[in-house]
Design a protein that fits this description.
Largest sheet: 5 strands, antiparallel
Structural class: alpha+beta
Number of helices: 4
Distance between the termini: 91 Å
Number of strands: 10
Strand order of the largest sheet: 1-2-7-4-5
Strand content: 25-35%
Helix content: 25-40%
Radius of gyration: 29 Å
Length: about 210
């Protein structure tokens, strides 16, 4: 009897362990293999020729710096979309360029970001370099959720930069605005409770004056 109970207990524990492991694997494996964006930079050797090829011969940059030092085609070579994609340069400046040509009108626009870059799509990025060591930094959101999990990856374009991990790095926390509790404390006079207290105080003062 005792041995049969022991075997039953072991079977129960084994089943529980198997269930836990299965649950962990079923959650971890899809997360581990989720689709993600990746970035490959095409560096055009001849900037003038590349600008002519992309229809940028008459483009005047908004920053007033004239012809860029480098022109890159940044390709999403991953298997997932990149959301809210933007670019900066450590040791310089970057601008996203898009050309709109419907056969009648030809317009060159500079964009602060690209909402979605699908796998296989390329973003044209102009770069002005101010340092001997410069890196193109790609910023994007992993998934379009309220968590706003932004990441970045640096690619050296001139001189030397620190070795980068193959995975994107989390962006430093952005200023998400003042904490709601702190806002309420610092703007107490603007709250409904403050207005009610003020009205109650005025009523009390009026009552006391009438009954003096």
């Amino acid at each position: 009897m005792c041995s049969s109970v022991g075997i039953g207990d072991w079977a129960t524990w084994a089943s529980a362990v198997i269930a836990v492991v299965s649950a962990v694997v079923s959650v971890w494996w899809p997360h581990r293999n989720r689709r993600q964006a990746g970035w490959f930079v095409v560096d055009y050797d001849d900037v003038g020729q590349a600008m002519l090829m992309h229809g940028l011969e008459s483009w005047t940059p908004h920053n007033g710096r004239g012809t860029p030092d480098r022109l890159f085609g940044v390709l999403n070579d991953g298997d997932g979309d990149g959301f809210n994609v933007s670019f900066t340069v450590d040791g310089g400046e970057a601008a996203i360029i898009t050309v709109r040509d419907d056969g009648i009108n030809h317009a060159v626009e500079e964009l602060p970001n690209v909402h979605v870059v699908a796998p296989g799509e390329t973003v044209l990025v102009a770069v002005w370099v101010d340092s001997d060591d410069a890196a193109l930094v790609t910023h994007w959101t992993l998934q379009p959720t309220r968590l706003d999990r932004r990441v970045y990856h640096r690619i050296g374009i001139q001189g030397k930069i620190d070795r980068q991990p193959w995975k994107p790095l989390p962006e430093p926390e952005h200023d998400r605005g003042m904490n709601l509790t702190l806002y309420r404390l610092t703007h107490f006079r603007e709250t409904r409770l403050s207005h009610r207290l003020s009205r109650w105080r005025r009523n009390v003062i009026s009552f006391l004056r009438r009954n003096r």
